[in-house]
Predict the structure of TetR/AcrR family transcriptional regulator.
Amino acid sequence: MTPADSGPEGTRPPPTRRRPGGRTARIRQQVLDAVVAELGEHGYDGLTTDAVAARAGVHRATVYRRWGDVGGLLADVLDAASDDDWQPPDTGSLESDLAALNQEIYAALTAQPPIMAALIAASFRSEKAAQAQQRLWEDRYARCEIIVSRAVRHGELPPRTDARQLLIAATAPLYHQLVLLRATPDPQLPGHAARTAALAAAAGSFAEPPSARDA
Amino acid sequence: MTPADSGPEGTRPPPTRRRPGGRTARIRQQVLDAVVAELGEHGYDGLTTDAVAARAGVHRATVYRRWGDVGGLLADVLDAASDDDWQPPDTGSLESDLAALNQEIYAALTAQPPIMAALIAASFRSEKAAQAQQRLWEDRYARCEIIVSRAVRHGELPPRTDARQLLIAATAPLYHQLVLLRATPDPQLPGHAARTAALAAAAGSFAEPPSARDA
């Protein structure tokens, strides 16, 4: 749901993002850091492979050869964001787990510089970035399903609950308000959207009908 | 919530979109129709003022003078979309009103050619288009508040209900799934998102706390 370093500030020390792997991995990290920095400073329109190469201290031919173009660079930033050990918050109840998750998303969507917003905007410009953004969201939503399975285990939700629909309902208002409607950020929004989804879940909105097997 | 002609097909005959006003109004309509057609065929990247002028049969100087650039053309398409008599569906209950509204949004977001999706994408490219898209959404959400006030009048909801939050909760999953996540369209989605919002509303999720006056 969030790019590589969009979790609450300070929860993970930066060095854990650097994986072993020698020169190739180090160059990749330098280049991707440069993409994020350039994107934050200049947005998509100011992002060029040359500026990224210069900032990363890497030869431009290396960047062209490995990433091709700006779309390839953005896609690799998004793909790298999944390459972490992020787990959704575990706070003890469905509503508070969803609220904590929404706080992370809210923080990422309102951060300065607006990296996540710029990556989402870029996904409307570059098909490669769009596909990588989809893969990242799929990864994040899949990891978040544990919030729902914990709530099922604790007896908060019926066993057959559509986890994905519940997670979409909980998080969609943040994206809609902040990314599409461009509303003034409302600090109540994360908690309220979580509460709405939890109330609807308690009322059976995401309960799947029994399958034919159970009939 | 929907651009000018994105309501269910055939509910309004096209001639009602043409307002009296003579040559200036007629030229505007020709140009805006051409923008929509070009956008549908070629997307934002293929949209040029010259192509719009040619398609509309209008001199290019007229287009430059009146609309300036592609952003100005898109902004006027979006502004013109509010200049109609659209009202949200009135079906007799909160959930079915929201479901009918969501059906309209779903139809617009999955239409071919994808005009609404292209306009939303364009709002990530042009600041003028972004501001006009915001104005259009504001107009549509304001008009939809009558859905909530009717439900209050019928005793379905408490008098102090946050209409906007309820409408955002009902509609956000469609935009999130279809515009951002680019999920395969699921015909169950409009009804399900409506039902989720209605269940949360019935559970008190959008009830505003009593104001100081009532204390």
